[in-house]
Structure prediction request, 1460 residues.
Amino acid sequence: MSSNFGKNVHLSIFGQSHGTMIGAVIDGLPVGEEIDLDALQRFMERRAPGRDEYATARREADRIEIVSGLYQGKTCGAPLCLLIANADSRSADYRQLRDIPRPAHADYTAQLRYQHYNDPRCGGHFSGRLTAPLTAAGAICLQLLERREISVGAHLQSIGTEQDAVLADDALTPQLLRSLAGQKFPTWDKEAGERMQRLIRDAAADGDSVGGVIELIALGVPAGLGSPMFDGVENRLAAALFAVPAVKGIEFGSGFAAAAMRGSEHNDPFYLDGAQIATKTNHHGGVLGGITSGMPLIVRAAVKPTPSIGRPQLTLDMESMRPTQLEIKGRHDPCIVQRALPCMEAVTGLVLLDLLLDGEYQRLY
Amino acid sequence: MSSNFGKNVHLSIFGQSHGTMIGAVIDGLPVGEEIDLDALQRFMERRAPGRDEYATARREADRIEIVSGLYQGKTCGAPLCLLIANADSRSADYRQLRDIPRPAHADYTAQLRYQHYNDPRCGGHFSGRLTAPLTAAGAICLQLLERREISVGAHLQSIGTEQDAVLADDALTPQLLRSLAGQKFPTWDKEAGERMQRLIRDAAADGDSVGGVIELIALGVPAGLGSPMFDGVENRLAAALFAVPAVKGIEFGSGFAAAAMRGSEHNDPFYLDGAQIATKTNHHGGVLGGITSGMPLIVRAAVKPTPSIGRPQLTLDMESMRPTQLEIKGRHDPCIVQRALPCMEAVTGLVLLDLLLDGEYQRLY
Amino acid sequence: MSSNFGKNVHLSIFGQSHGTMIGAVIDGLPVGEEIDLDALQRFMERRAPGRDEYATARREADRIEIVSGLYQGKTCGAPLCLLIANADSRSADYRQLRDIPRPAHADYTAQLRYQHYNDPRCGGHFSGRLTAPLTAAGAICLQLLERREISVGAHLQSIGTEQDAVLADDALTPQLLRSLAGQKFPTWDKEAGERMQRLIRDAAADGDSVGGVIELIALGVPAGLGSPMFDGVENRLAAALFAVPAVKGIEFGSGFAAAAMRGSEHNDPFYLDGAQIATKTNHHGGVLGGITSGMPLIVRAAVKPTPSIGRPQLTLDMESMRPTQLEIKGRHDPCIVQRALPCMEAVTGLVLLDLLLDGEYQRLY
Amino acid sequence: MSSNFGKNVHLSIFGQSHGTMIGAVIDGLPVGEEIDLDALQRFMERRAPGRDEYATARREADRIEIVSGLYQGKTCGAPLCLLIANADSRSADYRQLRDIPRPAHADYTAQLRYQHYNDPRCGGHFSGRLTAPLTAAGAICLQLLERREISVGAHLQSIGTEQDAVLADDALTPQLLRSLAGQKFPTWDKEAGERMQRLIRDAAADGDSVGGVIELIALGVPAGLGSPMFDGVENRLAAALFAVPAVKGIEFGSGFAAAAMRGSEHNDPFYLDGAQIATKTNHHGGVLGGITSGMPLIVRAAVKPTPSIGRPQLTLDMESMRPTQLEIKGRHDPCIVQRALPCMEAVTGLVLLDLLLDGEYQRLY
Prediction:
């Protein structure tokens, strides 16, 4: 069940980094929905490698082919299957990856888990390459949400030690989220973005890499979605977002900062905002007791620095059981945070659509 | 499905804060396992209110009665049901809770979700009281794990702005974890613990509350558990830990701090530690690609400050739709982090046992 | 997961035949629903032993206690837990059951499955006694369905070789189903019922037992429920109905008889019945392609003869590994079909409510 | 979730009868398993149309392409995706299918369920065409089972009113099952098979169709698989087998015939068969209390007559809401039972592999 997710909208991801094809099956999409393939392809462009000078040299067209689930251009109730061909499919010698595990990669644990039968070619099913079908599947969900005026966006809250500006809660608008999506390097503060890019260039120059924090925002999410205990918005979002490789932490609202606050500071007072019950601050990040409050949904994800770096690293040769120095050849992303960002948006879209479809919300006739 | 969890070991939690009984059903426990009821009861004491001067005045014996699932004192394959009577079951007037939502509580969202039919008495099913059966269920799992030399422990990494000491990775031993379990206020550094308690007393004196961060540690977890994508150790643990009320963030290994590191610093070099493949550092927190590496499993959870505070708070009277000032009567925990800690250990136990039972790990004969 | 069922309405059953308590947890019930406890208790009376001269001597009050899930008498969103005390809870010597498996019972397979740790007292969790909480849980669902004018009823289509009359499809009405529920021995044809009872008496006089076929009918089920492939009405109903001990076959509409028909005979012509699209015959039993058609839902279940009989039986003493003759002491139901009947109705109610709550049926706003 | 199945081995089916591709994703297969593609293709030949004079004129190569899940020819832990191109993909005018529902087909219910957005081309996702990927997925599972000496086979117990011979329980051998697989028209009794084929020819000559009963047999299934209540072998097999279109009933062992037996006749006596505990008869069909007994697993499925017949049929024109006479053009299978047979074997293989992988069977170390 490792590559399956969702209760109402059910996703199956398949493929390996260097297999012939990768893809996804989405079962349970609402019917009668058009899929805008051009918009989907543009969304894919946002996570594509090679958008800037720092990205990996691998260049995939990532053209989405939908082979089922549509009839006359609309979802028809049948599971939707999308395929992406792997242009760059190699079967070179991977003895090195098999015997010499790269630090901070899944090479070693994958071998344990799959008893040395795992596909070692660039991580196989563990590769970041698999975020392509995940992103595509989620981007389809986002299209359905947008039609219902639910917007999901994200900015780079930090890259390494560089922080983006902090925006006032009430400045958040769907327009602002859309403008983020148009940026190659989405930040509130343009100069902060430039500092971040400089920091990435510096790391690259050192043969090193950096991580960062992505802040996800969803606006227009109806209040009252989710459930207490194990089926809350946080449970379901966290369970899904940890599927994106390199994510090491997830927090909602004030998150870890809340732990250092006093209750009088953290508790968000309810008030009437026009005809709408709202809170004056949003430390709770739009979720109380696992259920959406109608306030902006705020989630942050910590992304670790890219494990593949240019510098020589110490590791173990598992054949000889001797220490060895590993040099990872080729060009690698010194930072994957900006590429993980649209994938995170997409995963958020998948979970929100799944939540919207929970039958329990509808009281029986 | 909100109060259900688990793939192999399946948990159902039921009850309301002021109903007659709360409890849990656990289906799928391995058979032939003795349950040490005394040890279970002692474990429950760790989360019981009233252990110290700061805790809530509500005093429940929390005596666990196991009414099914055992035969001659051992698990027999039938689902185990445990019941806890609510001694302090009131049906006072709860108009106030219904109309005047307490900030940072689920009063408002529960009403939306359950169309005003929810039980408003102290949060009903949303109450921290429901962590009693959750803790009991997980504590049973921990007993099974301990027999297999898997230890789970936790310390208070911070309360408010006070931090515990940082321990060297190689200092972690099962003995040390056991000694933490014996402390009323589990910290590595006794003085830090005293500073934390002072900080809680100060908050209480101000009619206020504080939060904190719990660091969970699991030792002896076999390498190779978990799966990539949606069924990894992080996904399953995060999905479960967010079931504990007041948790706002979860991180693994270096977590959010990893986002500010460079790859050369964060990547943990593999080496041979005796006959065991290990890593020299443990920034990955025992999980790579969703799969355990055999290194200590490190999870941290951010707990927000107790929402119920003594001070008057601004909120909305939803009947009149006018602002109102709310004063929450009675005595309340100014800090629940130390009580949430054993519950988090228990939930971790539940997830680890579930992972251990995954059939996929066993290669077919 | 063995004693769990349901997607939207999730049921957990617990208990053993001679444990202190048996019960069920139902999570996901629609909110604001009154539970009529008197009606529930009356429903339970229908499956109670000792209603007639043939039934087992064991006499249990089967008083249902609901300890959670209600607030002011209505479902409140919290999981509903119901408990039934086992008055007749013995811990006699069960060496015989452990070593000398009763033919057609689960004694032998339970020991294999649970490695001799299973509770052998009258079948433990495998006992027909566990149909009490199952019936109670389903009967609650039936109350909700009845409010929406969905009626479920059943008659004894056969006991042993005696057949009930065949009713014209268009004779089926909710009133008729209700009148069945009032009969101790529900048949269309009273005389057939008397012949069946005579047949049971004859079997009892011979120290033997008989089985039979139950025909379940659901009226008022909305058209369009269910899904193709694995999530159809047949899949979900069959998966649930096989949970009732002694069921050996399930068929829909013409079922096995359909296999001997020609298409021209079996195909039900569509026509307009007033304003309603209907079929002139109902060989399809109300389900086409896994989805309800609006015609009466017709399901039949084959129940094997009660395995416990008075006559001596050949079996194996698993301690000595020698053949032995087993005599089952005490009084036993020579026929359990009439007691299984309300349980089957209840299980049908559970599945239909679960289907009604599928979120997918609602097109998104 | 309609086209998803399985707990440990998880299957997703996708595609429509006249879409570009159909296929399946299988997640959770044991690793290190070779897939014999030639044997797989030969298995597919058994369900292919056009094997005999009666079959549909549609001719598909059904060449299986595995695009993920293998590394160096062996399962590697990544989900396996198999694709089958639809050579015969038409987009003709389907107004007739949309407005004039074919009796006994899902045309009408699919429109209700999917709000007229369903793909009407030859049933879309409801088409028997979708049994191709289902068969392929199950056939892969069967290969794994065969390596563990678990054999699954089936014969045509009846076609219309013609019955196959009854075989003594002890005559069942893996060799016999293999020889069935080699027959175009698998029966125990060759002459019975000829009578069945004559009956099909007669029906075809009348522009009509016939159904039949398939008897599935699994040998070598380890005793002790499955669980009581909702997770038994019967529950899981029935839930899966009803996914095959046209199945209207499922029974185990003596099934519906058991309902007419007396207990003394039906109860299978235990005895020692060499070193193996067995039963002298097999009325229980290899399952007691939801758990395998080690005796041959016997399942029968009733398949209704092919709904598409050459004769004119009465139905409703849903546009004009008037009765109309429908003539289904083209050539159609007058009997699909022999084509459904390998698909049923495959589904049985899928469920048995899933059961084998249940973690609960392994007692923890």
About this structure: The first helix of chain B runs from residue 37 to 47. Chain B touches chain C through 46 residues (CB under 8 Å). The radius of gyration of chain B is 21 Å.
